[in-house]
Amino acid sequence: MNRFRASLTALLGMLLVAVLVGCAQMPLSGPVQQGNQQEEDAPQDIRYFPSGPDAGATREEIVQGFIDAGTGTQNDYSIAREYLTGNAAENWNPDHQILVSDGQASMKAGTGENIVVSVPTYGKVDAHGVYAESLESSSATLEFTLAQVDGEWRISEAPNGIVLIQQAFTDLFEPRTLVFFDGLQRYTSPDLRWFPDDNRAATRAVEELLSGPAQWMLPGQAVTSAFPAEAELISQVRVNGATAVVNFSDAVSSTSASALSHMRLQLEQTLKSFPEITNVEMQVNGARLDVSLPSAEEVITSPQVNSSPLVQQGTSLGYLSGGSITPPDGADNVVAEVKRLEPIRGALSASQQTVALLTDEGTYAMSFGDAEATFIDSRGGQVEPALDNWDWVWTQSTTEPGLHLTEIGTYQTFDLALPAGISPNFVSHQVSRDGTRIAFLYEASDGVRLAITPIVRDENATPIRLGDPLVLALPGEQPNDVAWVDSNSVAMLIGSGEGTTDVRLYEIGGTFTTLGSIPSAMQTAGSNTLAGMRVIDRQGTLYAPRGTRWQASDVVVTFLYAQV
To answer: Are strands 562-563 and 345-349 parallel, antiparallel or unpaired?
Structure first.
C-alpha cells in the first residue's frame, strides 16, 4: 500500500475536525491533530487523537464515538475503552481484527438496548496481522449492547476489533515481512503482515514469527520455521542504538547450533523492515547467545535473476541490453537447441542452469550440460511452461487439461491434482522463486480469478500436493498472463474487452494495484523489482514501467522468457 509519507507529513500542521453526529450515515473518521510526542509511543508521521464520550451522549453517539476512537492507538486504545463499561473495557480486544472500510457505515436500533452497524468493507486484518483484500463489495455487521452507567450510556458488549477507513489504515498500520523457510530450509519465504506502527511493532513481529506462518501456507509442510513451538518472548523487543535485543525462553537454547543459526537469520530478515534496526542480539533469560548466520550457500535469502529481460528474438536467446542480446553464461547447448526448435514460449533458471521450451509440437526441457533437449509433453494447446528452482517443469494444456510435472535430469513425468476451486482450464501459471507457492490465472463463470496455492514437497523437493488456494476475484474479461515480479508479488495481464489490456499487481498478503493499460498486451515477465518488469504486445513491442506510465521501446522481440 502506498503511504505517500511526504504529503502526509505536511498535514501535521493542520487540524482536521470531524463532527460526530448520531444519524443514519456514520463518518468513520476522527480528528487528526499535531501533538507532543508521548513517552510510551514511537514516532509516527500521522497521529489521531479521538475524543472521549460527551456527557449526555445518546446511544447512537456513543457507538459512533467508539468506532471513531479506533484510530486512537495510544495507551492500548484507552480513549475507545472510555466508551465501554468497566467489564467490557477489560475484555475488549482491539487486535482481534481490523475492518478496512471504503464507505459510509449505517446504523439502526436493534432489539432492546442493541445498536446494529453495517460497515462496507474491502479489506480485513486478522488477529495475526494477515490482511485479505477483496475487489468485490462486501459488508460486515457489528452488534453493540448498551447499558446505563451513572446516568450515561456505555457499551456493555462490543465486537472485538476496530474499524478504520482506508486513509486511517494507511496512516496507522505498516506492512512487515515475516521470514520463514521452504520445507527443506533451502530458501527463505516471505509472509507479509500488518501491525500498528507504534513502539510495539517489533515485538508484534517477533511474536507472530514465533506463532508461525499464515495458516493458508500450511505451516510445517509448504513452509517451516526454525523456532520450536514452545519458544516464547519473555520481554518486549528492546532497541539499543541500532541493535534489537530479543529475549527468549529456555526452549530456544535447547535446540541445535544449526537451528539457532536459522533462527537468527529469520530474526534479522524479519526485523530489517524496521529502518532503525540493523543488528539483532539473541538472549535466553537475559543471557546473550553468540549465534552465527548460515552461509549464503546453505540458505538463499533472496533468489535473484538477471536484471535485464531474457528474450527470444527470431531464433536467438539472450539478455536484452542496449538493443543487443547476450546469451546466458554456459548455455551454448541451449542456444543451439533454441535455434533448432524455434520455441514460442520458455522459462530459464540461470542459477540451476535449466530451461523449458514450448514449441508448436509440445514442451522440451534440458539442463545446460545436456547435449540436446528432451521432449516431455506432447499435448496440443499448451500454455507457457513453468519452471522452478528444484528442476521441475510444470506444463498445462488447454485442449487436454491437466497439470503435468517433469523433473529435468530423470525426465520422469506425473500428474499433480489441482485443489478444489481452481479451474482445470487455467491459462497461465508460474512458481515463486522460493518454490513454496504457485500462481494460477483463469476464467471463471463470473469473471477472472487469481489463485495462489502452497506447494508441499517431500524430502527430495518433489512436489506431492497443492494446498487450498487463496482465490481472488478480479475485474476484467480475459485472463492473459501471470508472472512473479519479485519474491512476494505477481503481475497479471487481463483484457478489458475494449482492445486494451489492464496490468495489475498483487502483493501476497497486501493490496491490489492497477498499473495502467497497454493495447493488446499479451505477455509479462518479472525481474527482481517492479522496475525490472517487462510487457510485450502482440506485435512484439517491448514495454517498461517509467514512473506512472508504460514506455514502448524500439526493440521488437518474439517473446519473453520467465526467469527463475
So the answer is: parallel
Contact 323, 555 (CB under 8 A): yes
Judge whether 247 and 287 are in contact, CB under 8 Å: no
Residue with cell 542496449: 322
Contacts (Cβ under 8 Å, ≥6 apart) of 442:
422, 423, 425, 426, 427, 428, 448, 449, 451, 479
Q: In a 3-state reduction of DSSP, which class is residue 25?
A: strand
Q: Cell numbers at residue 129, please?
A: 496481522
The residues, any chain, with a CB within 8 Å of residue 403's CB and separated by 6 or more, are 394, 395, 396, 415, 416, 417, 418, 429
Within 10 Å of residue 277's Cβ, how many Cβ atoms?
19
- C-alpha dihedral, 191 to 194 to 195 to 197, nearest 10°: 120
pTM of the complete model: 0.89
Q: Reduced to 3 states, what is the DSSP secondary structure of residue 346?
A: strand
351: helix, coil or strand?
coil
From CA 179, how far away is CA 210, in angstroms rounded?
11
Contact 247, 253 (CB under 8 A): no
* Residue 28, C-alpha cell as written in the block: 468513520
Whole-number Cα distances in Å, 417 to 216, 240, 399, 403, 420: 18, 51, 17, 7, 9
pLDDT of res. 45: 61
Burial of 483 (0-12, 13-18, 19+ CB in 10 A): buried
Pairing of strands 98-101, 162-165: parallel
C-alpha cell at 287: 543471557
C-alpha to C-alpha distance for 279 and 266, rounded to whole angstroms? 12
- Helical segments of 331-430, H only: 332-341
Q: How far apart are CA 191 and CA 510, in angstroms?
A: 10
Judge contact between 433 and 484, C-beta under 8 A: yes
Residues in the chain: 564
C-alpha cell at 356: 523449458
Longest Cα separation, the chain: 88
Burial class (CB in 10 A: 0-12, 13-18, 19+), 17: exposed
Nearest by Cα to 558 from 313, 308, 322: 313
C-alpha cell at 77: 486504545
Kindly state the cell numbers that stand for 266.
529469520
Q: Mean pLDDT in each 10-residue stretch from start to end of the chain (564 residues)?
A: 35 30 39 36 69 96 97 94 98 96 88 91 95 86 96 97 95 96 97 94 97 96 97 96 96 94 97 94 96 95 93 96 93 98 98 97 98 98 97 96 97 96 95 97 93 97 97 92 96 88 96 92 94 95 92 95 96
